[in-house]
Description:
alpha/beta, eight-stranded parallel beta barrel, two-stranded parallel sheet, about 15% strand
Amino acid sequence: xxxxxxxxxxxxxxxxxxxxxxxxxxxxxxxxxxxxxxxxxxxxxxxxxxxxxxxxxxxxxxxxxxxxxxxxxxxxxxxxxxxxxxxxxxxxxxxxxxxxxxxxxxxxxxxxxxxxxxxxxxxxxxxxxxxxxxxxxxxxxxxxxxxxxxxxxxxxxxxxxxxxxxxxxxxxxxxxxxxxxxxxxxxxxxxxxxxxxxxxxxxxxxxxxxxxxxxxxxxxxxxxxxxxxxxxxxxxxxxxxxxxxxxxxxxxxxxxxxxxxxxxxxxxxxxxxxxxx
Length: 277
């Protein structure tokens, strides 16, 4: 069934488990993610991000993601992640995405609030939920260790109140992409933000963290965890491992889907969402 972040993250926040967002760029990945959710009876968030649109457009993805989400036996949020332009965000909602993330985190604090608050009003007309970001989850480079990009607890509470977001992505030391060295997560900061901010919190840059890192983040307030690199690499590895001379796409596409499914199930068990759908 197609739902919004509001419907899945409230329970996750109250019962201390995490719901994964698994971004997808093709049908094989989408089938793997949704098969994992149905087998484990887990709520799931699936979608794409603006930086991934060169690989599959919103319109192309919506053609199969919307009906697949609607007919699923578990709650499915169709989410547009890291939306950078108003035009693409509105397009996603028009196409049936039930949730969007408006990333204004590199703008000034007041501009971030103003822009996200305006988008919350627009999303309300579509019945969609909105995620914002405060602080900045950087690329996997030297910026990941810069304290100035971390989320401040009191500012996070002000941001949530003034924007009306349904979820808030916080910066506690994670980075997008594959990690070059072990991340240094500020769990104390996360716990303080969780005590201060009423809305569910989101962890970006999840791929590559250890099982204990994930469990520690969920225990200290994270309700939504973003994953792409891990399932993307699982799909590529399956294509490599099962390819042999003379075989076609149909000879390996089921193995690709199965690899994505298994990696997704692994994450759902770690996050604690299995059996919650």
